[in-house]
Amino acid sequence: MDLTALGQSYREGTASWGVALLFGGVAAAAALVLSYGAVRPLVRAFVGHEIEKVRQTRLRRMSYALVLASIFLGAFVLLRALTPPELRARRLAFQLSELGLFLFAGYAVIELGLGFVGEFLPRVRGTSPIAPIIRDLVRVLILAGIFVLGVKQAFPEVDIGALVTTSAILSVVVGLALQESLSNVFSGIMLTIDRPFKPGDWVEVDGKEGKVLDSNWRSTRIHTREDDLIYIPNSTMAKSSIINLTDPTPEHLCRKKVGIEYSAPPNRVRTVLVNMMLHVDGVLKEPAPDVFLIAFEDSSITYELRYWIEAYDRRNRIDSEVMRGVWYHLKREGISIPAPIRDVYLHRHKPERRPEEVIVLLRRVDILAPLKEEDMLMLAEDLSHHLFARGEAICKQGDPGSTFYIIKAGTVGVKVKGSDGVEAEVARLTPGSYFGEMSLLTGEPRSSTCTALEDCELLCLDRDSFGVLLSENPPVAQAMSDILAARSQATKERLHKERETMSKPRTQDEEAGSRRILEKIRGIFGFRR
After folding, report:
1. For residue 214, which of 57, 375, 8, 398 has the smallest C-alpha distance?
2. Looking at the whole model, is its pTM more than 0.70?
3. pLDDT band for position 506 (50/70/90)?
4. Which of 294, 460, 444 is nearest to 387 (CA)?
């Protein structure tokens, strides 16, 4: 049998079962190949921006529609080849296969069109995609039209007008039974028109805070910080007060209150806290953070810290860093955060010091080796204790400084940036080590950046105490200059090694550096030989 005869038998519905099965199988196979080779990749490209769970759901739904459309196409071709034209309108199996083909193929075409027009094109143009509820309504309306056309095509004897009238009556009955669901649908339409939020915005609804994922015909999905999903009915959303935390701009003002002791001057407190917030990662420099005095309470003065952030999803972490910085900076400045109690103080209690522990640390500082025991006791009395948090910068390269640090507990990392911008870690200092001596003794800017690698307790000595010490002990100045010159040369060698251009160190360079440093020490403290 030639192809012309096969085509004629298909059109006339007189093909044998073998030929009909061949026609149906080829049609279904071709449809499946086309579906998985072309249509499904297109759908994947259109929904590629969705979260994984939503993307997989839409792909699975489209796959079902394509498979069913292919099956109904194979059945339609098979029955058409077996049924003469005059009998097709009376064969229920043929009519159902035609209607199923209309519906599932129509659904696949609708999904492709909505994905392209409603999501892909807006994403390419940089505009907002069409709201999911609008896409759902368009999908339902078009599917209803396709259903009516499919019924008219597959069942030509059916009265469409009577069907529409019956559907209208049925719609009234269903509407009365589904008032709450219809309320969600129309509320969703109003939310889409008003657009108080969009996917990706952070909102607060009835005390619940989260990130909007999407909104469909029934509910709005919100992803909370606890990694939970909240499904809020659209009717509830329409009746509630919605606070959009990231609109009209992503900048958000945060407020934190803290109680400070009465003896601390407000201007000093404000300076300390503002400088602290300027160094917290995530706090914007513009608008600048600020501190306001709010109230005089029973045991403290209440201050409010106000600062702006842009990454709202990191708010909890930024708030934690700000409050952590409050504790450490106030502690270093000797400003206390009083407990909410009422006590009567006759005098300010000072913690008992243990000079013997401090003197042990001072003895480990090589530049202080020539000092006598009474000199060590004097320095131990002048030392102050400062706490630094892990990751906090103690001093930065290029900043002025007049403080000498001795590490009592913790580890400090020392980094130096060369003139070519290469920054190298030159040392890790442990308890008993010291730093900051160059700026203190010579008046030069800080030559390195020192960072607490863990929570650290440092002993600090200022320039005034050193002035008394050096004026009474000139040999200490010579010892300091020799050690500082050696340190400076070692730092340069480390930087040269980092850039792989290190040259051999020269002893005469160290001697010249020692003389230069000694002259600076004598100049800044105002004494000669």
Report:
1. 57
2. no
3. very low
4. 460
